[in-house]
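ok so I'm stuck.
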Amino acid sequence: MRTAYVFAILFSALGVMLALIALAAPFGNTGVDGTLGAGLALLGSVATTMLIAIFIMSGLTRGWFIALNSLAMLAAFLTALAAFFLMQTLLAIAMVAAFLTMAFAFLRSNRRTT
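replied:
not stuck anymore, here's the structure
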């Protein structure tokens, strides 16, 4: 298991919870409850979490690892951008934290598989 990515998956799981709160609006004060934008933010945070889980749990080659890491970083960035436009500040911060954590973990990884 790639321990450097544990914080990234925690931040993205926090993003899933915050996006679900924005979509379902149990507190009734989000302003975007039930909208397509909140649904897409939820989809993006779920995709980020699933991509991180896939490349943490499986033994991928270097090429697939780079591809999935790049897709997860792109999903986190775009979800943070969507959260910014939806004025969901905590969701945007969580997804930016997931993006930065993945970037730092990728830069310091020394994976030497074929």
